Amino acid sequence: MRLQDFDFRIWDKTKEAFLKQEPTLIKLDNERVIAGRISRFYANTADIADMFIGNGNDLELELWSGFYDSKGTKIYEGDIIKTRTNTTPIVVVFEKNTFYKLGFLEVLGNIHENADLLKEQDEAKRSNN
């Protein structure tokens, strides 16, 4: 993936919603990158931590995989997908040596707004055992 194609979304744990406005990433030093939504502009970088609404610890960054599902929807880390060959929903995580044919994938939702899809799967597994 090229840098210009880099994309992500940010889940606000406090508001239990994705940030609607264009999120921003700012590298403060060699160790920290903060993410959020700018509330106002500051020329002085010492005030940069005040630029973001909410607590940075309440924000969860989810990266775009660089791929689309069979319907053209971007696939992000934390999405719940299903495959044509397996009707059981699975969660997107970035792991080595795990591959699916993209034409067979469909994004059903995500782990934040659609966790019930995974609960239904767990209940079905328990009832079969």
UniProtKB/TrEMBL annotation:
Q: Which InterPro entries does the UniProt record give?
A: YopX-like_C, YopX_protein
What are the residue boundaries of the YopX protein domain, all occurrences included?
8-99
The protein's name in its UniProt record: YopX protein domain-containing protein
Organism per entry: Campylobacter upsaliensis
List the top taxonomic levels of the source.
Answer: Bacteria, Pseudomonadati, Campylobacterota, Epsilonproteobacteria, Campylobacterales
